[in-house]
Amino acid sequence: MLRYVARRLLHLIPVLLGISFLVFLLVHLVPGDPVRVMLADAGSPEQVERMRRQLGLDRPIHVQYASFVVRAVQGDFGRSIHTRRPVAQEVAFRIPYTVRMAVAATLVAVALGVVLGAIAAMHHQSALDYGTMVVALAGVSLPNFWLGLVLILVFSLHLRWLPPAGADSWLHLILPAVTLGTSSSAIIARLTRSSMLEVLRQDYIRTARAKGVGPRRLVYRHALKNAMIPVVSIVGMQFASLLGGAVIVETVFGWPGIGRLAVDAIFTRDIPVIQAVVLVAAVIFVFMNLLVDLLYGLLDPRIRYG
Amino acid sequence: MTRWKALPVLLVVVALLAMGAGSGGAGPARGGTLTMVIGSDPPSLDPHRTPSVNIAHAVMYETLVTVDRRTGEFIPGLAESWEVSQDGTAITFKLRRGVKFHDGTPFNAAAVKTTFDRLVSKETNAPGASWVGTLTRTDVVDDLTVRLVFSKPYAPIFSSLRISFLAILSPTAIAKMGADYGQNPVGTGPFRFKQWIPNDRIVYERNPDYAWGPAHYKNRGAPNFDQLIIRIVPDESTRVIAFERGDIDILPGAPARDARRMMREGKFPFIQIPTTSGTYLGLNVKKPPINDVRVRRAIGHAINTDEVARIALEGLAVPMLSPIAPTIWGYWDGVKQFALNHDPDRARALLAEAGYRPGPGGAMMKDGKQVEFTVWTYARMTNVRVAVVLQSQLRTAGIKLNIEQMEPATLLASTQRGEHDAILISYGWPDADILYYFFHSSRLATTNRVHYVNTQVDKLLEDGQTTVDTTKRLEVYKQLQRILLAEVPWVPLASELSVNFNQSYVQDVYYDKFGNLLLLDAYRTR
User: Fold this and answer.
1) Does B39 touch chain A if contact means CB atoms closer than 8 Å?
2) Which of B63, B229, B231, B415 is disulfide-compatible with B37, CB 3.0–4.6 A?
């Protein structure tokens, strides 16, 4: 098991190198240039050249990339071109905010999704089943920015229960978490339902039922655990993709997370910040995948790691 | 381009509606927190390391010169008086006595010199360095006298001097903080910096030592509020809701649609101020078919700017007749007789002169092809709405307009290379010298996005910078406005109005003619 984890972590190195190189190339290929953005394009050509030299952007791309890698390995990501703050500080400040929101959203998604999915499966082909799945379909289809604004309108403006923007307290977390969690919860509900249906058709369930196990115990004790394996993998993936969905939700709710940092950095072509954000996201993705694979083993003792 | 946009320089015209009348009683109440909201973080609170300055700088920094909020005239800020030399190449400032920075450092001529030397130094490479034009050095005459020396006269300097790019910074803090000064800024203003949570808020506290407020305030001492919070909320609908709920006390620049609704509902006091921003259609004069001046004039006559302001901009804009918005110094009222008035028949006649003939569906055709061009614009709602209105107006004159939306940095880079036919964009600037950036041939690879070259215009733009006598300088810009309206590298469209709301329990909030929020007299009734 430890060897397995170590090997998976070693895989991270080529992944990160590949990603960082692709991002580096992309940022240089896209039109627009951080120096022009920074100088608000009122700068004279000499001023532009000078700043480019100061930032080391006048060097050939492969030299810039090599120097980035060498410094990044030592933990030095440089300073943001746009804000002049250390990049590590910019990213480190925002990660807790984004993780807090992603965790809360995942809790919402799992709670809603698993309950709805299980209910639908237990009442297969009934009105309750169809109703739940229509709700789930609506959940996947509602765009985040729209749902977010509607929730703000209802819960902030009309009912005055919750604040619309900011990150001061756990109250501020509720609306963004629900917004972000809704679409994942719909996906999880659908998956839980189909996975449950499959498990419920299995022989051991029929045996348990024949032995006189009550319906509630049957579902919670015998079926749900086995039905959870595919669900866990999708929850892991959803968590990672929540970090991406956070871009929109963070903007709507004025949440100071990593998504907004990424968008601002892209608009200003702030290369060091873009690099750092993408690398952080990649690391989170890889770790979530690993975590999911390890969780399988807990849920299903038959799974072995070689 | 952020620079023109982030500096909405505005002019107060009307203060309407229930300003709540501060009914008698003792003076304004002290204490409390004032919360306002803006859409994005300033890149840095170091004015030398940011491409844009805004309210976040203005509340904590001060400039040598400021503007009287009623008359719009330059009045003493940190300088008590000033004198321009005969040849216009030197300005000597007498500085105010007894002013201290937030860190206790005394304000004096040396502080001014340190600040301006840093602003123009090659090592700093400040985005705002162009605001001081031809400034070559700053001389300390005595402890409270300082002289700015220019290589040649730089007429727009007074428009610049009141902008936070030219604010005076604490020399002690600059030396101590180095590259981190932007997160630990120190000025002389009524509020001092306390905390900055990126993408969330900037917090300031009352500067208790403050005693040098400009003459247009009743209160020239420390502000009434203990604390000032600037919240950063990027989504405009969320900003409006946070204000309507009462989480925010002052909402500057409400989005047009919400502003219309809230003005109608009448629940909140508001003030409507013209801005020095202008939205225009820039025509790349190198690209056929619009390289033909007759086609460009036809486009100008086909466009109805009244409709652009009324429909596309929700009536919260005034039509613009000249490339210079009416509130910018250098605007000339006589421009009306040269303006490109709405006249679709004239547009068709001009196209006929250029060899186009009416074809099927009224399209103006030459060699089997309709007169057609593509406009590039930001994917910003108001820009897109303006573009769509233009599209329908041009169609009635037989001209086909295609609209392409793109992301700002791409738009700016591609237009510098001249790949576009036309561009739809806005600017904001306090002085007619802005025309230099847009039309001088030395700016071809950068801000001259219409790729316009005219030696007579070049000469006039240079004269505009060096003519210190304001009457003569105005003549220069009159001539420029006439030429630009005849040659039509731009079709000026509209200048937006800013609607600023505040809660009725916040009293005596003022704005100067550039739209800057003035907070010294302001107080909360609860």
Assistant:
1) no
2) B231
